[in-house]
Design a protein that fits this description.
The complex is a heterotrimer of chains A (210), B (153) and C (750). Chain A is mainly alpha-helical. Chain A folds into two domains: 1-45; 46-202, no CATH class. Chain A contains nine helices and four strands. A two-stranded antiparallel sheet of chain A has the order 1-2. Chain A has a two-stranded antiparallel ribbon with strand order 3-4. In chain A, helix 2 runs antiparallel to helix 9 (190-202). Chain A is globular, with a radius of gyration of 16 Å. Chain B is of the alpha+beta class. Chain B has helices at 21-29, 62-65, 83-90, 100-113, 119-126, 136-152; strands at residues 2-6, 9-13, 47-50, 53-56, 69-71. In chain B, strands 2-1-5-3-4 form a five-stranded mixed sheet, with helices on both faces. The longest helix of chain B has 17 residues, at 136-152. The chains are: A mainly alpha (210), B alpha+beta (153), C alpha+beta (750).
Chain lengths: 210, 153, 750
Amino acid sequence: MKQHTERYLLPVKTISVLAVILSVIVFMSFSFKNETTISSLKSDTINKDSIESVKAFMDVYKVLMSPRCMNCHPSGDVPLQGDDSHIHTMLPQRGKDGKGIYAMKCMNCHQPTNLEGLNKPPGNPNWHLPPSNMKMVFEGRTPNQLAKQIINPKTNGNKTLQQLIEHADDGLVKAGWDMGEGRTAPPLSHEEFKKAWITWIKTGAYAPKQ
Amino acid sequence: MITLNINKKTFNVDVDPETPLLWVLRDTIGLVGTKYGCGMAQCGACVVHLNGEAVRSCVTKVSRAAGQKVVTIEGLSEKNDHPLQKAWIELDVPQCGYCQSGQIMSAAVLIRENKNPTEKDIDAAMNGNICRCGTYLRIRKAIQLAAEIQRKG
Amino acid sequence: MTQQKTSINRRSFLRSSALAGGGLMISFSALAEFKLDDKVNKLDLPDQWYELTGYIKITPDNIIKIFNPNPEFGQNVMTSLPMIVAEELEADWKQVVVEMGQHDSVKLGPQFTGGSNSMRMYWKPLREAGAAARNMLMEAAAQTWSVPVEEVTTKAGMLYHEKSGKSGTYGSFASKAASIPIPKGMKFKEPKNFNIVRNSKKNVEGLKIVTGKPLFGLDYKVEGMLIAMIEHPPAFGMKLKSFDASETLKMPGIKDVFSQKLYEDGFEQGGFDTRSFNDLLVVVGKTTWEVMNARKKLKVQWELAGDTKNTMSGKREFIVPGELESTSTQLEKMKEYAKKPAQQLRKDGDPETAFKNAAQVIERTYNAPFLAHNCLEPMNFFAHVTDEKALVAGPLQAPGWSEPTLSKLLNLPADKIEIQMTRMGGGFGLRAYGHYIYEAALISKKVKAPVKLVYSREDDMTYGIYRPMYTATYRAALDANKNLIAFHVKGGGIPENAVHANRFPAGAIDNYLAEGWQIPSNITIGAFRAPRSNFAAAAEQSFLDELAEAMGKDPIDFRLELLKRAKENPVGKSNDYNADRYAEVLKLVKEKSGWNNPENKKYSRGVAAYFCHNSYAAHVVDLVMRDGQPYVERVFSAIDCGIVINPDAATNMVQGAVVDGIGNALYGGLTHKDGAAEQNNFHRYRIIRMHEAPKKIEVHFVQNDIDPTGLGEPPFPPVFGAVANALYKNTGNRFYEQPYILQLNKTSRA
């Protein structure tokens, strides 16, 4: 995990849109099993195509692993910040519900909306990390691991395939592409992301080999 | 006109709803115990309670506080006897004193939610409050003393 | 007390007496929002005060008001200086109320906070003030009781005549005492009889601080007051070319936008009249937020300032270079200059020959960046200037230095300028410089209204008067038996060097050479907590540690050996330290830290000691590494600052200096790119936070009866060296570059 490398390099950065979507619906914790496959999902897949699916997921992966998404899906209990994904200044803790603890709750600084000016805390009415019983870690995950994690209801917060698809259009998702002045957006536009996301799922939600 | 409930009193203020709560408190209402330190939620000098949570008033638009319950350092206790205020004086915490109202307001949320905070809990709660004079050790001790005063009622 | 002061105090009393009936209470009338001490309110503040010296007033009800002369920035002089008065007065501390004195150098002395000088400067005058008042009260009682004054005794605010059994409070004799001539040549109390000094007293402003009372400059408010902010150039080396304020003036609450020169050409600046920028672009409005917002609408053209000329007092002129400086090029330049011949500051013996004949030469170079003070209360000042007079109020360290400049700038005689000192939200040296006071005064004069000038955090950080950028190369020559035969320090910096040529280890080594050089710059610099020492200690104490290792010696024992030599057979005559006192703090910290106790091996331990500002400090820091991050877990400090006035508050200040030292050593630094500061707020300028502060800082004071010396600064510099030495123990790498976290991250990545 990177620490404060060069002084505080970059501004308070942002959260993954998907993270938010996925985290809000999580209730139960199950151990992650590698052998979990898409067959366990109730699927309305139209045309299964493992090659196209994996290709689409690699685009999705680029977005999820961008600082905008990954920073709030840390492997530890402190979010990351900045394009270099350094540990969040002042070490806010995840807390049980993912909303921070004590005097350091996310919404104490992160407002319902973005603020004018560079490096101000970005805003969202529902700002938080995944909860402690469903951490949905992105940081350090390979494409294979992340794909499996997302489609597994036991690690995605009991979401069905259809619910996953719908969340591409969630207001929180879209906010991920509007994280306030000076913040680098995810590598794909929201439209491109949504397309890749749906394609991945509808073509079978295959996990890349690696 | 925005209606604010601050320290149990009602204020009607005629300000731009985008104005940070900090400046409404300081310049419009005249409650200057809440301090300006950075203007970007980095230092914690401006912490007030909004519905009991330790918000950074320098980045909180006054519109968010409209109709909500705001408590500032001036309203933390009626008789200057909040356990934290007692403990701060007992252990003679302040040096310059500028950050201390923010420190106390943050600590108040901590000891409300955790009756017996460990050093780790204190770090987690207080890392958002900078003390440039370096009184952190005394703040830690004073929080634990305040928790004790609180437990003994 | 000198004759002159006595007669003036007498006059001031008579002047006050003439007003009696109306009361002698000094009120903060202009500080409309300020409330008097709760303690005073509780006691139902009386309106009759009898002034016994410039520092003391007593009511018939035996309330004793003591004026603190020196500005308070967290060093706790509001409590500790009055304790000295109360001690010699034999007052009951419970009956004492303290008030910040206004600027009045005739009545209240030099009134300067800085250089760790408060105690040194005021120890004798305040003892005199207390003793004089006590003698006046005794004389009054003796006259009233018709007994010899020698038979009158005092205790805790009471006067007694044992033989007759008579007694009375100070208050009951205050009126009579006030008419007694101020005595001279009083005997002071023996330290063994102190019962206020050396006994911890709580901060007299504690309650106000924890309840959010208006105390600070930024809290200052009067009816009709406007807020002003200054838009400054984006970089050092630039100046205002033109501006269009039309959009700004349309913004709500905005009253005026104008440019204002700080100093006219050829203005003779005093030593603390440092200016960062001279052409000020000022926005004035009703509230802080409105002005902050409106600033964003300014359309400004900046241009290169080119070389400019500063005229210092005595018409001494020097050129400020116009270059847009960057940290990378500054470092290159420092390397170049370090190779050039430099000014010799001290030479003992024949260092050249010794180095030539050495069996081993060790040479190390240390660098440190600019540091911003980052007082948590940004710079601000209130001013209300009219054609006849000026009132300025706010946080400042040196009213006496600002007054002459204000007088010149405003074209007003000094007695028409009233300076009020508020509590400061930190100072660290920055508030000794008066530019922001002058700016406020000039703005008020221009807009003809009371004005509070406010710096945003960004203004404060990028528009600073920084700790200079320093470098120093240390060399040591060892003979074949690993004896230290010569020592050489060559230091430089932008724009000054940090070499204290007569300081340890000068005096302990036969062949010694100290040299210095400097590079001019347009980046403004000034005092920062223990100026120069804060770098010198870091470099020298790291070097001595490395040297001890090369010589196969324990780092404390090595220093003690050098100090023994300096005491028994000192080299040179102008050594500025006392080798015994220096050695004493090292021995004390060795003992208290359990230096040789194997149980402490679980920590990476570093030691350092330093002498500056007339006091001695030594620290042992115990460091651990968690998740690749260094944490100083425990610190043991030994301090000799003579008599400790208020032990618990003194301990607090040492603990604070240690935390500040760790923070600045590990994280502090301001860099520039093309003249612009690269850090403008705390998201880029890392300040030590709660979890990074030690769990324990144990402070031990050497017990002696030496007159008190400074404490705000002396514990700060050696922390840098101790942290570097502990980091070495942990990582196996020596740390030559501040802030250390950068070097640590570089090496841990490599």
